[in-house]
Write a structure and sequence with these properties.
The complex is a heterodimer.
Chain A: H1 3-27, H2 32-37, H3 39-46, E1 65-68, H4 74-84, H5 123-136, E2 143-148, H6 155-166, E3 172-178, H7 187-190, H8 196-202, E4 206-211, H9 215-222, E5 234-239, H10 262-272
Parallel strand pairs in A: 1-2, 2-3, 3-5, 4-5
Chain B: H1 2-15, E1 19-23, H2 32-37, E2 42-44, H3 49-61, E3 65-71, H4 72-77, H5 80-89, E4 95-99, H6 117-122, E5 128-130, H7 135-147, E6 152-156, E7 177-181, E8 185-190, H8 194-206, E9 212-217, E10 219-221, H9 225-232, E11 235-245, H10 250-260, E12 266-272, H11 283-289, H12 294-304, H13 307-311
Parallel strand pairs in B: 1-2, 1-3, 3-4, 4-6, 5-6, 8-9, 8-11, 11-12
Antiparallel strand pairs in B: 5-10, 7-9
Helix pairs in contact in B: 1-7, 3-5
Classes of the chains: A alpha/beta, B alpha/beta.
C-alpha cells in the first residue's frame, strides 16, 4: 500500500464529504452524520478497488455485491457511485429534488445499488441469500453488507448472523459502522450492544476490529479478502465517529438528521475546504 | 392442499434447479421426498421469519426461484415488512405459501388462525394473491407461482378435499375467477375452502326456490375488474363469503371493484367479525360461532333479502 494511494483515497473521502454536505444543504435535510461515519469504509471498498464491480455493466453477474444496510448513508454512497462512473456526477445536485431518483435512502433504481434499503435490519438477511446462492452456483463473487451498530439492535440482524455462522458463509463480509450513536442517543445509555466482536464471534463469525477512519487499517483488513482461508463469515467492527470531519457535529445524537445553517454552515464549509457560495451554484 | 403443493413443487423442482424450497421449521414432515432427493434445493432457516424472507430476496436477486412455506401468520404477518420492502418494493420473484387459512388450525388458537392475510397481502403493490379452492386448483397454482414474475402469496389449507374441479379442469388463472353456477338475482362469491360451503349454500337456498349463482374468486389480487363486473351485472344481491376477517378481505376487494364500477347491487359481506376467536373447538364449531355455518348463512340471506317473498 503506497503513500500515494492512501493520499489519493483521503482526498476522495474529503471530496465525498464535500458532496454529501452540498447535497444535504441543497435539499435542506439528510443524514450527514451517519454518512460521514462510514465514508472511509465505502471509499476503500469502491475507490480503493476492493469491490470487483464494473460501472459500465452495473448488473454484471460476477460482480461483488454491496448492500448498504444502513441505507441512510446513501448520501455518501451516491457521490462514490457517481465518481466510479455508475452515473453522472452532475446528477448529484438533483438529490431529493422533485422527480429525482436520488433520495435519502439507498434505492435500487440508482445504477450501482443492488438492494433497496432504509428500513434497518434487512441487509444482512439479503446478504445471506446472495452469499448462499453464490455458493450453490460456485460463483466467486463476495457479498459485503455495511451495517450500523444501532441497526444491530434489530433482532433480524442476529437471525441472519446465526444463519451465516451456521452455514459458514465464508463469502459474506459484514462491516459494522460502530459509531455508538443512533438517532436518539448514545447506545450505551439506553440499549448497549456491549462487545460486537464477542457477539459475532459467538455466532460463528471471525470478528476483527479496525479504526473505521484509518484508510491503511481498512485496506489492510480487506486485503486478500477474496482469497480468505478461514471457514467463517467475516465481521469487521469498524470503530468510527458519527459526523467525522466536522467537529461541531461529531459524536452528537442531535445531528442525526440536521443540516447546518448560518454560522454552522460557514464553520462546516471551512473545515471541509468548501466555498460557502456553493449552495447557490 | 399441502400435500399436493409439495408434490407438485417437487416435480417442478426436479426439472428446474433454480427452484429453492425454504422452510421456517414447519412443514418438513410433509415434504420429506423433496428434502431427501433435492437436498441442494432445500433450506430450513429455522424459526426466524424475517431472515427467511430476506434470504429468499437474496436468492431471487441471484436468479433463483425461491418458494417459501410457513403457517399463515408466520408467512404473512411476522415478516410483513420484509415482504413489503425486500420482495414487493424490489419486485422480486418469490412465492410465499401460507398454510392454515382461516380456522384451519382451529385448536391452536388465535395465534395460529389465518384471518388477516388476504387484507395485508393485497395491500402490497405488485403482490399477486392466490386462494385455491381445492387440490386440483392448488396444483395448477404451484405452476403459476413458478412461472409468474414478481411476488406471489398462495393461501392454502392443510386439506383440499372434496374436489370441486375435475382433475383435468383447464384453469385460466389470469382470468381470476370461475363461475361455478349461474343464478338469478343473487350470487355468492367465495374463495378458498369456503367455495364448497358456497356451493352447498346455493343448494340449500334452492330448496327455498332461490336460484343463487356461485363464483370462485381464486385470484384476489389483481382482479379483472371489468370482467367480474360484467358477470355480476345480472345480480341484484351479491354475497361475499370468506373465512377471514370481514375487514380488508375478499368482501372488501369485491366492494372496491363494484363501487368503482357504479354497480347498484346490494352486497352482503359474510366473514369473521372484528374480534379474535378466543374459544376452542373444531373448525365447523368455530365457523358456526361466527355464523358461517349453512343454517346461519341461509337465515341471514333470507333475512337480508326479500328474495324468498319474491319467489313464493
Amino acid at each position: 500500500m503506497t503513500k500515494t494511494k492512501i493520499a489519493y483515497l483521503k482526498n476522495k473521502a474529503l471530496w465525498v464529504r464535500q458532496q454529501t454536505l452540498k447535497m444535504a444543504c441543497g435539499a435542506g435535510e439528510g443524514h450527514i452524520a451517519s454518512s460521514f461515519s462510514c465514508t472511509e469504509i465505502m471509499v476503500c471498498l469502491y475507490q480503493g478497488g476492493v469491490l470487483n464491480v464494473d460501472p459500465k455493466h452495473p448488473k454484471w453477474s460476477e460482480r461483488d455485491r454491496f448492500i448498504l444496510s444502513k441505507g441512510q448513508a446513501a448520501l455518501a454512497l451516491y457521490p462514490i457511485l457517481a465518481d466510479m462512473g455508475f452515473f453522472s456526477v452532475n446528477k448529484l445536485c438533483t438529490f431529493a429534488k422533485n422527480g429525482s431518483i436520488l433520495g435519502a435512502h439507498a434505492d435500487d433504481a440508482v445504477p450501482g445499488v443492488d438492494i433497496h434499503t432504509g428500513s434497518l435490519g434487512h441487509g444482512l438477511s439479503i446478504g445471506c441469500g446472495l452469499a448462499f446462492a453464490a455458493r450453490m452456483d460456485r460463483k466467486r463473487y463476495l457479498t459485503f453488507v455495511l451495517l450500523g451498530d444501532g441497526e444491530c439492535q434489530e433482532g433480524s440482524i442476529w437471525e441472519s448472523a446465526m444463519f451465516a455462522g451456521h452455514h459458514k458463509l465464508t463469502n459474506l463480509i459484514a462491516i459494522v459502522d460502530n459509531n455508538r450513536l443512533s438517532a436518539s442517543d448514545h447506545l450505551d445509555k439506553y440499549l448497549s450492544l456491549k462487545s460486537l466482536s464477542k457477539k459475532f464471534g459467538s455466532f460463528g463469525w471471525k470478528a476483527v476490529q479496525v479504526n473505521g477512519h484509518s484508510i491503511p487499517q481498512i485496506l489492510n483488513v480487506l486485503k486478500g479478502v477474496h482469497n480468505r482461508k478461514a471457514r467463517k463469515p467475516l465481521a469487521i467492527i469498524a470503530n468510527t465517529v458519527k459526523g467525522k470531519g466536522i467537529r461541531m457535529i461529531e459524536n452528537r445524537a442531535d445531528w442525526h438528521y440536521r443540516v447546518p445553517v448560518g454560522k454552522e454552515l460557514e464553520s462546516a464549509c471551512k473545515e471541509l475546504g468548501l466555498r460557502l457560495d456553493f449552495i447557490n451554484k | 392442499m399441502r400435500n399436493v403443493f409439495f408434490e407438485r413443487l417437487y416435480e417442478l423442482a426436479r426439472e428446474d434447479p433454480r427452484i429453492i424450497l425454504i422452510l421456517g421449521d414447519t412443514g418438513g414432515f410433509f415434504c420429506e421426498k423433496f428434502i431427501q432427493k433435492l437436498k441442494k434445493q432445500f433450506i430450513n432457516v429455522g424459526i426466524a421469519e424475517q431472515n427467511l424472507i430476506g434470504i429468499a430476496a437474496g436468492l431471487a436477486q441471484a436468479g433463483k426461484i425461491p418458494v417459501v412455506f410457513n403457517i399463515v401468520p408466520f408467512a404473512a404477518l411476522r415478516c410483513y415488512e420484509q415482504i413489503r420492502i425486500d420482495l414487493c418494493c424490489m419486485n422480486l420473484s418469490v412465492a410465499i405459501a401460507g398454510v392454515g387459512a382461516g380456522f384451519d388450525y382451529n385448536i391452536l388458537g388465535a395465534t395460529h388462525h389465518g384471518l388477516e392475510d388476504i387484507a395485508v397481502m393485497r395491500g402490497l403493490p405488485g403482490m399477486t394473491v392466490l386462494s385455491p379452492s381445492d387440490d386440483t386448483m392448488t396444483k395448477v397454482m404451484v405452476d403459476y407461482c413458478i412461472k409468474k414474475d414478481g411476488p406471489k402469496y398462495l393461501r392454502l389449507d392443510r386439506t383440499g378435499m372434496p374436489l370441486i374441479y375435475s382433475k383435468n379442469h383447464k384453469f385460466n388463472i389470469e382470468r381470476g375467477f370461475h363461475v361455478l353456477r349461474r343464478g338469478k338475482n343473487i350470487c355468492i362469491i367465495s374463495t378458498g375452502r369456503m367455495v364448497i360451503t358456497a356451493l352447498r349454500l346455493s343448494e340449500v337456498l334452492s330448496r327455498h326456490s332461490i336460484n343463487a349463482g356461485v363464483i370462485d374468486l381464486f385470484r384476489i389480487k389483481p382482479i379483472r375488474e371489468s370482467l367480474l363486473c360484467h358477470v355480476l351485472s345480472r345480480y341484484k344481491y351479491i354475497v361475499t363469503l370468506e373465512e377471514h376477517f370481514i375487514t380488508g378481505g375478499l368482501g372488501s376487494a369485491v366492494l372496491e371493484v363494484l363501487s368503482k364500477n357504479a354497480q347498484n347491487a346490494r352486497v352482503l359481506t359474510f366473514g369473521i367479525p372484528d374480534r379474535f376467536c378466543r374459544v376452542y373447538g373444531d373448525r365447523a364449531y368455530l365457523q358456526k360461532k361466527n355464523c358461517l355455518d349453512l343454517e346461519s348463512l341461509k337465515r341471514r340471506i333470507l333475512k337480508e333479502t326479500n328474495l324468498l317473498y319474491c319467489s313464493s
